[in-house]
Amino acid sequence: MEEQNAKTEEASTAAKVNYMQLLLPGSILLAAILISGTLIFTRGQGGGGAAQIGNVPQAQNEPIDIKVNQNDHILGNKNAKVTIVEYSDFECPFCKKFWSETLPLIKKEFIESGKAHFVYRHFPLPSHSGAKPAALATECAAEQGKFWQMHDEIYKRQDGQGQSAQLTKDNLKKWAVAIGLDTAKFNQCLDSEKYSKKINDDLASGQTVGVTGTPTFFINGQKIVGAQPYETFKQAIDALLK
Q: For labelling, which of 10, 62, 186, 188 has a CA lying 20 to 30 Å from the CA of 48?
């Protein structure tokens, strides 16, 4: 009887060993799948979500042919070798980050030297109720030759948190006074939403070339997504100037 019990116990122990040998690789595989899934999810959530891409690294891609037209707002020499097109949203905090931290450096090194020119296009995101009124305000300011002044004024006053409550028509009218616009003319233009088609055309052109968030840039057609550091832009521009 004791011999039979010993054999039974020995068989049970062997079964447990075999089970553990099978369980361990399976556990390792499961852990690897969970970890890789977590990494994919984490990377996918970078930079503020799908609507506002922000600081999302951009993979290499084929250049896209983007034509600059007479209705575009341009800084710098139109005949410069490098064209930088930005699709932007005045309520987007990442757009403000680019405007305040990176654009001044690009202006100093490349735009003022005549090596590049910069094109601004509107891409008001559906989730930003203040973005389109702000875009309309810059177009109304452009009638008086002050697109860039209003562009800068709006970003200067944007709180960096994406709050649409700031970008009301009443506030935009006050800011028009601050930059010396003819307020009667500006107010009438803003209230009529005269430039809605222009803004919608910019938005449609961005969607056509694959813009899904702001800010998105095309440097001679090469796509860069998000408020990337100045060095990212410098490397791309320097490569084109060689």
A: 62
